[in-house]
Specification:
Blueprint: H1 9-33, H2 39-50, H3 64-69, E1 86-90, H4 97-103, H5 108-118, E2 132-137, E3 143-151, E4 154-161, E5 164-171, E6 174-184, H6 189-195, H7 200-209, E7 225-235, E8 238-252, E9 255-265, E10 268-272, E11 305-308, E12 313-320, E13 324-326, E14 331-339, E15 342-349, E16 353-360, E17 362-363, E18 372-373, E19 378-381, E20 388-397, E21 400-402, H8 420-439, E22 444-447
Antiparallel strand pairs: 1-2, 2-3, 3-4, 4-5, 6-7, 6-22, 7-8, 8-9, 9-10, 11-12, 12-20, 13-19, 14-15, 14-18, 15-16, 16-20, 17-19, 20-21
Helix pairs in contact: 6-7
């Protein structure tokens, strides 16, 4: 009698398990490993399609003629806010007319033009210790106005008109008064200061002063408060312009930021915070210079976004068309031209760092490869349709892209300990002026220096 052999139930289960394992392996291969069908690949392709059309490979210096051949996109209409820096000072014992201008960044050529314009009224060789001066520059660091005060009753003024300089002598009683201005920011710091009855040039000066610690483009919001102690200059009782900001405080979501002017020696001074640390840092807070925002703008739309792609790390800065872009640190221009269909500038900085500014609608005048640029120097402008434009900003270190938002700049030289006592005395006098204005509940109070 023959016995029938029965198949083991374990063999069927094993075959089924092997079949499921094979199906899972195939799915893993196609979804995660295979180059043309994997999820990471498809996600990366999607991100690249949405990303800015930027070519951020290591730039190569191109001849100027070649850069001109490249087809640049048509420039949109730009409303450029011409609010550059203002510098005031006192002539020191070892200063000359040319040394003062050179220290302020005025080229020898422009200095010679100023001497020629002044020659019929004033001999610049006769400058004396204690005389004061004010220089005003445009956004692209071109000198546009010089005021040289030789006494309390005489002032020489030189102004640029087109391509020539015109000089004049003003006679009268000059007076410098301290003015205290307090207020609350709204949609724009410019608007807040203008509502207090002051000029927009004062807002521009405050932005310049606090640009290392506060980005009015990123950090400001309605409800921020500011206090300013500033010199106001008068001729025969009529207001003629602003002098130096002596003390500034801005309180926002990042906490209070202070800048206090201290001049231990006439003609040599700087700004410090309340701890005696320099307000100047190796890098600016952002490469986008704050401009007047439209009153109906949704500020949340203008926050920067971090783009992480295969080739680079970069930060996108949406901003109104016409917004100026400035160098975050001193350096040398290594590329300027068209890249990715828009203007681009690249700057090499000390220490092996490079900064890249892409999607510019317009470059600053006379900006060439090899030029040295100073921190805060405007290198270009944004532009776009519908009032909104976009800067793509990247930083390289040692040839590799790094996250710009992770940079931690260092402060410049702090106040020497030997001068800290005198600094506290000056700071106390400024606080007293601010407190006196606050006690009278005045938004703008005139005080004696």
């Amino acid at each position: 009698m023959r016995h029938r052999r029965h198949a083991s139930p374990w063999k069927g289960t094993l075959r089924l398990a092997l079949l499921f394992a094979l199906l899972i392996a195939v799915n893993i291969y196609f979804l995660f490993l295979r180059g043309g069908t994997s999820l990471p690949y498809l996600q990366r392709i999607s991100e690249q399609r949405r990303a800015l059309p930027a070519l951020l490979s290591a730039p190569k210096a191109v001849p100027k003629a070649a850069a001109q051949v490249a087809s640049a996109p048509p420039e949109p209409h730009l409303i450029v806010l011409d609010e550059g820096r203002m510098s005031t000072g006192t002539v020191g014992a070892s200063d000359s007319f040319h040394s003062v201008l050179g220290r302020e960044g005025v080229s020898p050529k422009v200095a010679a033009e100023l001497v020629g314009a002044l020659s019929k009224l004033f001999d610049p060789r006769n400058v004396r210790t204690g005389q004061t001066y004010t220089l005003r520059f445009d956004d692209e660091e071109r000198l546009r106005n010089l005021e040289w005060r030789v006494s309390a009753h005489a002032l020489f003024r030189v102004a640029r008109r087109g391509d020539s300089w015109h000089s004049a002598r003003e006679q009268g009683t000059f007076e410098t008064r301290w003015a205290v201005l307090t207020g609350t920011g709204g949609s724009s710091l410019f608007d807040a200061i203008e509502r207090a009855g002051e000029g927009r040039s004062l807002a521009a000066a405050l932005i310049e002063l606090l640009a290392w610690d506060t980005s009015f483009y990123l950090d400001s919001q309605p409800g921020d408060r500011f206090k300013i102690l500033v010199e106001k200059q008068y001729l025969d009782g009529k207001f003629r312009g602003y002098g130096r900001i002596l003390s500034a405080e801005y309180s926002g979501r990042l906490g209070p930021v202070h800048a206090i002017w201290f001049e231990p020696v006439p003609g040599s001074g700087a700004y410090y915070n309340e701890q005696g640390e320099s307000v100047v840092k190796t890098l600016l807070k952002t490469p986008v210079k704050y401009a007047r925002f439209p009153s109906n703008a949704d500020r949340r739309r203008y926050q920067p976004t971090l783009h992480t792609e295969q080739a680079h790390l970069g930060v996108g800065y949406p901003a109104p068309a016409g917004t100026a872009v400035w160098a975050i640190a001193p350096g040398r221009v290594t590329f300027r031209g068209v890249r990715g269909g828009a203007h681009c500038v690249q700057i090499a900085h000390p220490g092996g760092m490079e900064s890249v500014y892409l999607q510019l609608a317009k470059l600053a005048r006379n900006l060439e490869v090899g030029d040295s640029v100073r921190q805060k120097q405007v290198i270009g402008y944004l532009g776009g349709t519908g009032g909104l434009s976009h800067l793509h900003f990247s930083v390289k270190m040692g040839g590799h892209f790094i996250d710009p938002l992770r940079l931690r700049p260092a402060r410049s030289t702090p106040l020497p300990i030997s001068q800290y006592g005198a600094f506290q005395t000056v700071m106390a006098s400024y606080r007293e002026a601010l407190a006196d204005a606050a006690s009278r509940s005045s938004t703008s109070a005139q005080l004696g220096p």
